[in-house]
Amino acid sequence: MDVWEMLESRRTHLIAMRRDFHAHPELAFEEHRTAERVAAHLESLGIEVHTGIGGTGVVGVIRAGEGGGAMGLRADMDALSITERNDFPHRSRHPGRMHACGHDGHTTMLLAAAEALVATRNFRGTVYLIFQPAEEGEGGARAMIEEGLLDRFPMVAVFGMHNWPGLEAGHFAVHSGPVMACADRFDIEVGGHGAHGAMPHLGVDPVLAGAALVQALQSVASRTIDPLDSIVVSITQFHSGEAYNVIPDRARLSGTVRAFRPEIQERVEATMQRICAGVAAAFGASVHFEYRRGYPPTINDSRAAELCASVAESLVGVQGVRRQARPSMGAEDFAYFLMERPGAYVWLGNGPGEGGCTLHNPHYDFNDEILLTGARYWVRLVETYLPSGKK
Ligand code: NI
Predict the structure, then answer these.
(1) 3-state secondary structure the chain
(2) What is the reported pTM?
(3) Alpha carbon of 134 to ligand 1 centroid (Å)
(4) How far away, in angstroms, is 15 Cα from ligand 1 center?
(5) Are residues 379 and 345 both part of a single domain?
(6) Is the residue at 107 inside a domain?
(7) Which of 8, 56, 157, 185 is the most buried (most CB within 10 A)?
(8) 103 CA distance to ligand 1 centroid (A)?
(9) pLDDT digit string, tens, across residues 111-157
């Protein structure tokens, strides 16, 4: 039986596995059930398994032939703090937890690829299957790297894949350079002087100063950064006051910054600091500004991206691969792997995104039609990057 037929024969099982993960979502660093099932499945295939890396991370090791190179393939396992609004039988069993980003599908696709890779071993070298915890904001990739992932499993390159609603089901998008943005956070505390709401001249109003800051901070994107460099500055929280007739004594503003280059992040931070100080001074208020780096930008290596694109084309044809897709202002902790090793992160189309089937939406579901496409992609990527030399 050839490898594609073998995968095809596993279709029903794989869908059931994906739906079981979907029904039992777990949040960052709590992926115990998922990690256990992943490890058990790999062990059942005779694969060497390492658990507890970066908390709940799991690594499977598949070797073939003598010598050869080494590569990492990564899937994420965690879910989101969302209450699912779907009513199909495999909906989340846990209110407030949901696989609304398709990591259930990513985990299943990599397990499916593992089945095919151990069955055929049509490559020469070592494949590290990385099942990481906590992609959604908590930096599970960073946790695994800090615990020595790349020393214990010396991969030369690393590859990632994420489903992408809005891209036709089973199509791919990949390009070199920035794919996803950084996700930095900021908090601003404006200190005023509380007063009677009817006697504003006796106080310093932090709400007015805060409102001016909301406006002024939009000039970071429009007036200080080259228009050809994409950035986002979003103020997403503004908290102040508790009464109708009291001018409060402080206001808190928070938000997120997205950019694709470290130089831009530095420029944004410095400019925001300057605007905060200047605007607060203009209103006689005090200000405390804190800027924290989050996930770095995800930047594909050009040769790795080219390799992924050609592998995808060999599976789904030239028409099925978008090489010029625009990057997303979303963020992804696969960025940490790409800061350490060359590699590339591809998007696999999840279909049109109808009925709220978009990432992080309570109506989202991973499209089971693309499970085998994703698994085939992993298998062919391995066979291409680590050629066996056999004909
Ligand atoms: Ni995701």
Answers:
(1) CCHHHHHHHCHHHHHHHHHHHHHCCCCCCCCHHHHHHHHHHHHHCCCEEEEEECCCEEEEEEEECCCCEEEEEEEECCCECCCCCCCCCCCCCCCCCECCCCHHHHHHHHHHHHHHHHHHCCCCEEEEEEEECCCCCCCHHHHHHHCCHHHHCCCCEEEEEEEEECCCCCCEECCCEEEECCEEEEEEEEECECEECCCHHHCECHHHHHHHHHHHHHHHHHHHCCCCCCCEEEEEEEEECCCCCEECCEEEEEEEEECCCHHHHHHHHHHHHHHHHHHHHHHCCEEEEEEEEEECCEEECHHHHHHHHHHHHHHHCHHHEECCCCCECCCCCHHHHHHHCCEEEEEEEEECCHHHCCCCCCCCCCCHHHHHHHHHHHHHHHHHHCCCCCC
(2) 0.93
(3) 10
(4) 19
(5) yes
(6) yes
(7) 56
(8) 6
(9) 999 999 999 999 999 999 999 999 998 999 999 999 999 999 999 99
